[in-house]
Amino acid sequence: MTMQFNDETFRGDYTFRNSAAAIRRFPFPFDRDGYMYSVNIEQHPGGPAGSPFEFAFDVDEHYVAEMKDREITLADDPMRCQSLPHMELAGWDLLELIMVSKARDYPELFKLNRDGNAWHWINRPLGIDKTFTFLDPTTLPCGPMEYITRQAQGDFALLHEREGNLWLDAGMVTSQADWSLDFDVGMNFFEWHAPVPKARKMGVFDKALKFLLAVTQEQSYRRLNWTMTVNPRLDTSPENYHKWGPEKRSITPANVGAKQFLRVELQTFWRLPRSNALAFPIRCYLCNLEDIATQPKWGRRLHRVLRDIDPDLAEYKGFAVNHEVIVDYLAQFDDGAETSPGIFPD
Amino acid sequence: MPNTKFSPSIDSRPTYAGLVSQGAAPGIMVADAAGADALVDLASADSSVMDRAHVLLVGAAADTVSRIEALHPKALHGAPDLEAATPLVKRLLSAARMGTTLYLAGSEGLMGHVAALATAEGLPLEAIQMEHRGTVARRMQCVHCKGITEDVTTDPFTCSHCGLTLFVRDHFSRRLGAFQGVCVDAETPGVVPDAQEIRA
Amino acid sequence: MSKLALKVTEIEALSPLVKRFRFEDPAGAPLPVFSGGAHITVEMPDGDTIRRNSYSLISDPHDGSGYEIAVRREDRGRGGSRYMHTRVNEGDAITVSSPANLFQLDLRARKHVLIAGGIGITPFLSQLRQLGIAQKPYELHYAARSRDEAAGLRLLPDAAHIHVHISDEGARMDLGAILDGQPLGTHVYTCGPEGLISAVADQAARLGWPKTAVHSEAFTAPPPGEPFEVVVKSSGRTVQVKADQSLLEALEAAQVEIDYSCRGGACGRCRTHVIACDGRILHNDHWLSEAERAEQKTIMPCMSRFKGARLELDL
Questions:
Q1: What region holds the Dimethylamine monooxygenase subunit DmmA-like N-terminal domain (chain B) (predicted)?
Q2: C-alpha distance from B183 to closest chain A C-alpha (Å)
Q3: B27-132 is classed in which CATH architecture?
Q4: Is-catalytic flag, A249?
Q5: Chains interfacing with A (3 or more CB pairs < 8 Å)
Q6: Model confidence over A19-39: pLDDT tens digits?
Q7: CA dihedral of B60, B66, B70, B75, whole degrees rounded to 10
Q8: ipTM score here?
Q9: Which residues span the domain enclosing C8?
Q10: Digit-coded pLDDT (tens) for B103-162
């Protein structure tokens, strides 16, 4: 079956919608009825057929619309994509990883023919047919990282390893949970995460760094992270905070189910072969509360998680002002019944 | 007045360990008027530190210049402000070799700006020493328009480029040599808290 | 760990003591490419144990048609290199790990200075190719006692920025002259005997180089020693470590689950907590600090041994 791509927007009139199938495969991030930071890492790719974990780089019904949204964001602010000079090789590594994976996993959508360094790439959903020379940047319209991440959903960070640390030295970041690539590019792992409350004290980042440094090219990993967003907006950047900020205050008991979205990041970690850099794709999935509640297990659990969450975390994740309305709304889906373990719907 | 002690903060907020002489090895020293005192202290601990030092004073008065002259650095240059000093700093760095130490003293704005220049020229971060003296004013990047506002002393403050009212974060970018300013009334336009003096 | 089942396709003597081996996929499938300075771990089944040694890849990092390594025969070692020299033939099957890199180039460097001693030339052979492809400025200094010891000579291009120092011919390496006056942003990398690594580090420190610009990799394989035994906490079993076996190899032979990567005391992956130690741990790794060594509460089983009455490990 060929995939159908939605014609939808992530700004202005916000016509983004999840189909029933997209709701069922939404990567609900809570495997129990409570939440605190954890490293929660699993091997990737791998997961039930049809789930967003099945393939290296998940392609779903939002692909074409997300790529259009990225194009709008980049046209307005090209600094959302930056690569320090020593990261070009890592950009080629990433391009190869994504092209090879997509051509293998979605042969009806993508095709890659390689004859030495002479490559031919076909991206049917975006109508791209391109021949170029691998490792020769003059044969692409832009740098390799930018070229391929204009064709791949989610944000991308490329981390350079040195001095026992990982440095955020390149990225494509247009759908971030409120952090600025332009400001953070060049930072090490601890500096980049410095604004996250509590986690440093808990040693989360020391453990995470140690884990990431040990990732080898033979095995990749994933974890889920989450936050809350009002309206299905991908560009919740600090750059445009003054533009989208007022929307955060538009939540009412009447509209919260439709306008309040759970925003899930599927983060994956890849050791890149030629550059020995780490690729850190951060794929964003959005689902509003009323769609989440169509899965009874998720409705019950999300109510419990948000009701009991640490207030500092609600503040950091930016939904403290709407916390009460959200929990009141979700209460109607929580009959007190037990929930099954794991993230998948019953 | 010794090296300023700042309150503990997040990991991205720089701390300044103070200047320690690397002896008569090649050195580049950049200081403002307040930072010049740190150079005087450095030389009084070890006068040989000046033997191969190029000193660049930014916005310093004549009496400060003569105090540094009395330390007999290898070369002494002056510049009215950071912008005017930048080409000379770049020139000195381009001629420098491995083993050169960069000594910075004065405001966070000066140190952040010059350290960013130096690392961009290939100087390893560990070859940069810093000592904070004088004003606690900050060099701020507006996250919205990307403009830099120098000498920010209050929180919130007005971006000198786009005019938004920004709050002052401790999040610091070494590459930009600046702290981050974020719109304080983004969610509730017009609701702006009273400005407070920035403190150490 | 996922492994690659390959075939030995070429063996060539580079010098009386050093052989070059080439491995390819038996069906000709491309192998994962890698970065300059990466190594693979080679499995050497020998009776009831599998010995595993890590070797730097010396072939072109962008060429997935095969992997090449160079092995120096160490007759006083615990037998890994002797196995490679005497038991491995062209056409044999051989199992290796995917490449991993603990000695990568800092790609930000304005210039790279590579200093090799003896068989320590190996990681630089792949790095040279990477630097060549990227057209980055570098110079290589290769020191060896004699031309016979300088097995890498045959694999090096003849170029102005490649300097060979043969001490038997009176051409000793002058580290001061090499490091003095290098441009800002230069990084130096050393691979070779401990003495050379510390001499470069000392010289760089004297010239005021920050530690972050000074890199090294010691290419040691686990040393043999006297036999000893360890107790494994989870099962209470006692494991015998033979004279020509590393502790890690003995644990693996006894089916004790333990993580590893470099098998050369450099990556930290096999770090193990010591429950009880009545005796002295012979630390041979480059991972633990002096303080950690003195405490005797952790051991790196890939390299280190034990002498005493009882050693119990948290495994």
A1: 9-125
A2: 6
A3: 3-Layer(aba) Sandwich (3.40)
A4: no
A5: B, C
A6: 999 999 999 999 999 887 666
A7: 60
A8: 0.90
A9: 3-97
A10: 999 999 999 999 999 999 999 999 999 999 999 999 999 999 999 999 999 999 999 999
